[in-house]
Specification:
Aconitase, domain 3, 13% strand, 412 residues, 17 helices, single chain, 16 strands, alpha/beta, binds FE3-S4 cluster
């Protein structure tokens, strides 16, 4: 790989031990993928928010880097934490959970990161420019950055994104290169989709087929909202390892199908129909239990936007969460504050619903749910349904809120 003078100096140790180790790691990654050079990046979204997902080894690694004097040279936002930093006590987390979280957040702040602790940094102003090279973790955020914003990132892991934050560089491979950004298969949508959950079901279907390829979706109206695109992308990244996608006539690299595919014809064997049958089959396949037994309902995965909070307020207004049920809405404290200022949080909290900020079930301590006695979950997100079922060992129902609202709430 050809390095610039400054990159070679980083590798030679001129900028200190932490930068040297970071550059060694990036060069090794680049060599694996035959990268010819490094590219400068403008930002990082780093998966170093939760000591649970980082694990003891990952947490020690981050602390070692900080001790060696590591400082971020570009803006770095930090992904979700393991607890809600404001409501951890009333939610039943332990002092130890709190201390571990504080220790990790303290270190990433010292290094220059912004502990916004959200998986939707683009909802709070972290918005890369079109074609800007970036290094983002968090699969749903990666899809949003690539497909909706037109930024350029691979699905980074924690160590490589950390190294990118310390050096301001990534090796030029994968989605940093034009040729890898074109669509390779096509999903033709024949159903009239309405709302986040419908689009998430489409995403789950398309991700299973695409796996690590870039899908082109056609038949989606230009009126699709940002939060519907967010939910579509998050589901694409759950059932497959998709990092980029195109919606013809909607996303910036897909004004036409031809442009999205790089003017290569998509063969009929790489063209898939998504009609009512596929929709129903996919939706049903995500649940492994009915909603009747749900005692924990979690909405807002990826973290809810202000528009989604408004939709939840409309749906929940005039209702009361049933006694044996807990209903959470996940979001960032910044979006929650917006909701407070315009009177939405008040409507929602008066129903008995709780806002859970800056965290997510997936990054909470594994035994938390069993200890709290939750048995069955329900959610409107396929990503969360997948993680709750597999990582937290809880059966989970998946569907739009209107399908189970009468089961988990009653009219006042
Ligand atoms: Fe975000 Fe957690 Fe969902 S990190 S995308 S709320 S699984």
């Amino acid at each position: 790989m050809k390095l610039t003078i400054q990159e070679q100096e980083m590798l030679d140790g001129k900028y200190g031990d932490a930068v040297q180790k970071a550059m060694e790691l990036l060069v090794a990654v680049g060599d694996c993928y035959d990268a010819q050079k490094m590219v400068p990046i403008t930002s990082v979204h780093l998966n170093a928010g939760s000591p649970v997902t980082a694990g003891k080894g990952g947490t020690k690694f981050i602390m070692d880097v900080a001790e060696r004097g590591g400082k971020f040279v570009i803006p770095v936002t930090i992904n979700v934490a393991s607890i809600d930093p404001w409501a951890w006590k009333e939610m039943g987390f332990s002092e130890e959970n709190y201390r571990e979280q504080e220790a990790l957040s303290g270190v990433t702040t010292k290094m220059g990161g912004f502990n916004c602790h959200t998986c939707t940094p683009y909802q709070i102003g972290h918005i890369p420019r079109m074609r800007a090279h970036i290094a983002w973790c968090e699969s749903s955020a990666v899809l949003y950055a690539n497909a909706i914003l037109g930024g350029r990132t691979n699905r980074e892991g924690g160590p490589s994104a950390l190294a990118a934050g310390l050096t301001g560089r990534v090796p030029a491979y994968g989605y940093h290169l034009d040729e890898n950004r074109y669509g390779k298969l096509k999903i033709v949508v024949h159903v009239d989709l309405k709302g986040d959950t419908d689009y998430a079901t489409l995403g789950y279907f398309a991700g299973k087929i695409a796996q690590d390829r870039v899908p082109i979706l056609t038949g989606i109206p230009p009126s699709i909202s940002d939060h519907e695109l967010k939910c579509l992308g998050a589901a694409l990244a759950t059932s497959g390892s998709v990092a980029h996608y195109h919606v013809v006539g909607v996303t910036p690299e897909a004004p036409t199908e031809e442009v999205a595919s790089g003017f290569k014809k998509i063969s009929s064997s790489d063209t898939f129909e998504f009609g009512f049958t596929e929709f129903k089959e996919t939706e049903e396949s995500i649940s492994n239990v009915g909603p009747e037994e749900a005692d924990l309902v979690v909405l807002g995965c990826p973290h809810a936007s202000i528009e989604q909070i408004k939709n939840y307020a409309e749906a929940l207004s005039g209702r009361r969460v049933k006694n044996k049920v807990e209903l959470w809405i996940l979001t960032s404290n910044i979006i929650k504050k917006y909701g407070e200022d315009i009177g939405l949080t008040n409507i929602i909290e008066s129903t008995g619903t709780k806002f859970v900020c800056n965290t997510c079930p997936n990054t909470m301590p594994r035994d938390f749910f069993k200890k709290r006695g939750y048995r069955v979950a329900a959610t409107d997100s396929p990503k969360l349904a997948y993680y709750i079922s597999t990582m937290k060992d809880m059966p989970c129902y998946y569907g739009s809120l209107d399908k189970f609202i009468d089961i988990v709430t009653s009219k006042r």
